[in-house]
């Protein structure tokens, strides 16, 4: 992040505003709404100050601010509309050691004013770090349309019961789980439907039984969640919801930070990634840790790239967890095959090219890799190989040796759906050499089949001038060889 987002307490504290126009009025209004004692320094005030000038915390000083005016303030805003005057006011603030915001001059600001969605006491602030205030306002407009005004009253209701719940439940984790049940259950439903009295009755009933429910809820649960191939936009709503509930997360090597940042910030993060042929933490130990955390009463998130049941060992983990009596939720993810193929502009099936699609992995349990080659070399089908980049040369040679067409088109999608996605296309007999020249690092998906020849046509029609890549608009690269 370029800046630290914080909510600053200014209730009852002095705030200085330089300027008498519309922008200065908006700054003064926000500071007054937050409880600040606002002094506005300007020879004249526009009509925008008519309403706020009646506020008890408002004071007008008909001159420019001085150093002594600012020294005791906690914040200062400068919005005079004059670049020189604003710069001088900012310099005064810095001389006084007071954080300052200078309107329309991000390089002179110690802090930036976000766009605000106000559902008091619920407040949402949106900032682009000064890069595009217009875009921040667009996001605010969308949030305004989807967040009911009743949310603020619901937050107030919850706040009124915090002390009672704190007396009944001493553990923070137990209190958090209680409020999650309340805010995702009947209490919130009745409140938001306008039946506030019924909601209060439901909440009182829940509080009356809170001690019993807490003592009976000793066992935690495990969420096995597919995070997709890399683009955070491909996460499901259910995955996001469980990611925000977790007490501890065990995550894989292939997950980008953009997805990990969506996990609840207070959750404990544990890396259990594996490198090819180098399993730092054995699978048995990972599963044992899942069981141990769940038996401690924690909600454990097992976050995997792609889909947990598509070569992700999710089935092995569920099998052991169920045998241990642990409650498990499984959330499917967009598998790397479908996600990467789509972002590369390659349909896995097509009536003119492939009526079947076969998924296989370049890794297996134990030594060696035994494949049903007779089924893989069939015509009019697509073969997708997961985790095969390290064995690409031997896989392609074996494919030809078992009767496969050496001229069959092949594509490798490296870091698919991510900003650094690259696509290499060739044939069975050339793809290993091309991949080595491109120095692909993985993770990668290998696609064999005549559907690869559709890549240029479909990508060109979808994104004209995009050099044969759906995603080139986002800066993704494409490397091709005649097929």
From TrEMBL:
<keyword id="KW-0169">Cobalamin biosynthesis</keyword>
<dbReference type="GO" id="GO:0004851">
    <property type="term" value="F:uroporphyrin-III C-methyltransferase activity"/>
</dbReference>
<feature type="binding site">
    <location>
        <begin position="43"/>
        <end position="44"/>
    </location>
    <ligand>
        <name>NAD(+)</name>
    </ligand>
</feature>
<dbReference type="Pfam" id="PF14824">
    <property type="entry name" value="Sirohm_synth_M"/>
</dbReference>
<feature type="active site" description="Proton acceptor">
    <location>
        <position position="252"/>
    </location>
</feature>
<feature type="domain" description="Sirohaem synthase dimerisation">
    <location>
        <begin position="150"/>
        <end position="207"/>
    </location>
</feature>
<feature type="active site" description="Proton donor">
    <location>
        <position position="274"/>
    </location>
</feature>
<feature type="binding site">
    <location>
        <begin position="22"/>
        <end position="23"/>
    </location>
    <ligand>
        <name>NAD(+)</name>
    </ligand>
</feature>
<feature type="region of interest" description="Uroporphyrinogen-III C-methyltransferase">
    <location>
        <begin position="220"/>
        <end position="483"/>
    </location>
</feature>
<dbReference type="InterPro" id="IPR035996">
    <property type="entry name" value="4pyrrol_Methylase_sf"/>
</dbReference>
<dbReference type="InterPro" id="IPR000878">
    <property type="entry name" value="4pyrrol_Mease"/>
</dbReference>
<dbReference type="InterPro" id="IPR012409">
    <property type="entry name" value="Sirohaem_synth"/>
</dbReference>
<comment type="similarity">
    <text>Belongs to the precorrin methyltransferase family.</text>
</comment>
<dbReference type="InterPro" id="IPR014776">
    <property type="entry name" value="4pyrrole_Mease_sub2"/>
</dbReference>
<keyword id="KW-0949">S-adenosyl-L-methionine</keyword>
<feature type="binding site">
    <location>
        <position position="416"/>
    </location>
    <ligand>
        <name>S-adenosyl-L-methionine</name>
    </ligand>
</feature>
<dbReference type="GO" id="GO:0051287">
    <property type="term" value="F:NAD binding"/>
</dbReference>
<dbReference type="InterPro" id="IPR050161">
    <property type="entry name" value="Siro_Cobalamin_biosynth"/>
</dbReference>
<protein>
    <recommendedName>
        <fullName>Siroheme synthase</fullName>
        <ecNumber>2.1.1.107</ecNumber>
        <ecNumber>1.3.1.76</ecNumber>
        <ecNumber>4.99.1.4</ecNumber>
    </recommendedName>
</protein>
<keyword id="KW-0456">Lyase</keyword>
<dbReference type="InterPro" id="IPR006367">
    <property type="entry name" value="Sirohaem_synthase_N"/>
</dbReference>
<feature type="binding site">
    <location>
        <begin position="305"/>
        <end position="307"/>
    </location>
    <ligand>
        <name>S-adenosyl-L-methionine</name>
    </ligand>
</feature>
<keyword id="KW-0560">Oxidoreductase</keyword>
<dbReference type="InterPro" id="IPR014777">
    <property type="entry name" value="4pyrrole_Mease_sub1"/>
</dbReference>
<comment type="pathway">
    <text>Cofactor biosynthesis; adenosylcobalamin biosynthesis; sirohydrochlorin from precorrin-2: step 1/1.</text>
</comment>
<keyword id="KW-0489">Methyltransferase</keyword>
<feature type="domain" description="Siroheme synthase central">
    <location>
        <begin position="119"/>
        <end position="145"/>
    </location>
</feature>
<dbReference type="GO" id="GO:0009236">
    <property type="term" value="P:cobalamin biosynthetic process"/>
</dbReference>
<dbReference type="GO" id="GO:0032259">
    <property type="term" value="P:methylation"/>
</dbReference>
<feature type="binding site">
    <location>
        <position position="229"/>
    </location>
    <ligand>
        <name>S-adenosyl-L-methionine</name>
    </ligand>
</feature>
<dbReference type="InterPro" id="IPR037115">
    <property type="entry name" value="Sirohaem_synt_dimer_dom_sf"/>
</dbReference>
<dbReference type="Pfam" id="PF10414">
    <property type="entry name" value="CysG_dimeriser"/>
</dbReference>
<dbReference type="GO" id="GO:0051266">
    <property type="term" value="F:sirohydrochlorin ferrochelatase activity"/>
</dbReference>
<dbReference type="InterPro" id="IPR003043">
    <property type="entry name" value="Uropor_MeTrfase_CS"/>
</dbReference>
<feature type="binding site">
    <location>
        <begin position="335"/>
        <end position="336"/>
    </location>
    <ligand>
        <name>S-adenosyl-L-methionine</name>
    </ligand>
</feature>
<keyword id="KW-0627">Porphyrin biosynthesis</keyword>
<dbReference type="Pfam" id="PF13241">
    <property type="entry name" value="NAD_binding_7"/>
</dbReference>
<feature type="region of interest" description="Precorrin-2 dehydrogenase / sirohydrochlorin ferrochelatase">
    <location>
        <begin position="1"/>
        <end position="203"/>
    </location>
</feature>
<dbReference type="InterPro" id="IPR006366">
    <property type="entry name" value="CobA/CysG_C"/>
</dbReference>
<dbReference type="InterPro" id="IPR028281">
    <property type="entry name" value="Sirohaem_synthase_central"/>
</dbReference>
<keyword id="KW-0520">NAD</keyword>
<comment type="similarity">
    <text>In the C-terminal section; belongs to the precorrin methyltransferase family.</text>
</comment>
